[in-house]
Design a protein that fits this description.
8 helices; two-stranded antiparallel sheet; Ferritin; mainly alpha; 221 residues
Length: 221
């Protein structure tokens, strides 16, 4: 009985010593040192870089969206809407399978991007405007077709439609790329989500422009 009691006492004492030792190790573990290296902030084109302390860099935080970002997203809704209208003429106006596949890809891509735009606006409580194909300065947005040009595209068929569709959509896509350039020129595109979306538009539409130019050259030949 005495031996059993002694073993129990030793067991409890051992656990207590280990627990105190672990607590002491935990309490005495040093905090990770704060970063002390300076951070270089790249300057805008033509402007020098700036060296920031870690404290200054922390105060900057993530760039916020600006009015130019809102206008870009709102205008892109109208721009994409018209592109979807244009792709809607394809199935009834041409039997060219390559153009039909191209139009279907464009429709899906533009609809997906509209969802991204709508979510971005909703998250920032930006109301959608009721404009009809016009920028916020009252001028027509780059690449947009007039009502008469849309009517002419809808009325065309066969080879004439193919040529007109490719020419119109190339112009329309080039307008979207121009809108991206204007976004950055106006001081927008610094917020990460806007920047990512704008670069996607620029890249995706640039690829499709090259594809359509080749298709147009093939049909002209």
């Amino acid at each position: 009985m005495r031996m059993t009691a002694m073993r129990r006492s030793l067991g409890v004492g051992t656990v207590l010593v280990l627990s105190l030792g672990l607590a002491a190790c935990t309490a005495s573990a040093p905090e990770p040192p704060a970063p002390t290296s300076p951070i270089v902030q790249l300057g805008a084109p033509g402007e020098p870089n700036q060296t920031l302390s870690p404290e200054e860099a922390a105060e900057l935080g993530s760039p916020k969206h600006v009015e130019a970002d809102e206008e870009f997203m709102l205008d892109m809704i109208q721009h994409h809407d018209q592109a979807i209208v244009m792709t809607g003429f394809v199935d009834e106006n041409t039997d060219d399978r390559d153009i039909q596949l191209l139009a279907e890809r464009m429709k899906v891509s533009q609809e997906d991007e509209l969802k991204v735009i709508t979510r971005w606006l909703q998250d920032r409580f930006v109301p959608v405007n009721d404009g009809a194909g016009h920028g916020h300065d009252g001028d027509a947005m780059p690449g947009m077709l007039t009502d008469d040009e849309l009517a002419a595209l809808e009325a065309a068929s066969g080879a004439k439609f193919d040529r007109l569709f490719l020419e119109s959509m190339i112009r329309h896509h080039q307008g979207a790329v121009q809108m991206v350039d204007e976004l950055y020129a106006a001081g927008g595109g610094n917020e990460s989500e806007v920047d990512q979306f704008a670069r996607h538009v620029e890249s995706d539409q640039g690829v499709e422009i090259a594809r359509m130019q080749q298709m147009l050259a093939d049909r002209a030949g």
